[in-house]
Amino acid sequence: MAEEEKVLTVNIVTPDGLVYDHHARMLVVEALDGQLGIMANHEPLIAPLKIGEVRVTRVDSTDHENAIAVNGGFLEVSHNVASIVADSAERERNIDLNRAESAKARAEKRIQAAKEKHDTDELQRANIALQRAVNRINVKNHR
């Protein structure tokens, strides 16, 4: 029982289904208010997340860390279960770096075009697309 109390179950769900489900020693997320570190027996918590990297230190080894690119959403922690619900999420091992770099280049072109047209709505959408692409690149390169 004592060993069970040191384990946090982490799962990440998107509209497409379950992306991640493992036991962890620690979870680190990018909340709107800053970075949060979550371990077993954490107080219940709900926090909105920004586009960023989620890092999970697995229980099977202190050197075994998973990185997941999450595009916003929210985190709920309760009874040693940390659940992240996001519009989209991608594990480091599944990220296609060439595709992410192409998305970054497209977003940068969209930003430039939106600035020239003074289209604030398109500029905002393009900036979000750029943040998502950069996040995926950073997670893949594990920065």
TrEMBL record:
CDD domains: F1-ATPase_delta
Matching Pfam families: ATP-synt_DE, ATP-synt_DE_N
GO molecular function, one term: ATP binding
Membrane topology category: Peripheral membrane protein
Keyword field: ATP synthesis, Cell membrane, CF(1), Coiled coil, Hydrogen ion transport, Ion transport, Membrane, Transport
Parts forming coiled coils: 97-124
Transmembrane segments annotated in the record for this chain: none
Keyword check for Coiled coil: yes
Location(s) in or outside the cell: Cell membrane
Signal peptide start-end: none
Residues covered by the ATP synthase epsilon subunit C-terminal domain: 94-140
One GO CC term on file: plasma membrane
Residue span, ATP synthase F1 complex delta/epsilon subunit N-terminal domain: 8-89
Protein family membership: Belongs to the ATPase epsilon chain family.
Subunit structure as annotated in this protein's UniProt entry: F-type ATPases have 2 components, CF(1) - the catalytic core - and CF(0) - the membrane proton channel. CF(1) has five subunits: alpha(3), beta(3), gamma(1), delta(1), epsilon(1). CF(0) has three main subunits: a, b and c.
Job of this protein: Produces ATP from ADP in the presence of a proton gradient across the membrane.
Record-given protein name: ATP synthase epsilon chain
Naturally occurring in which organism (per UniProt): Lactobacillus selangorensis
Taxonomic path: Bacteria, Bacillati, Bacillota, Bacilli, Lactobacillales
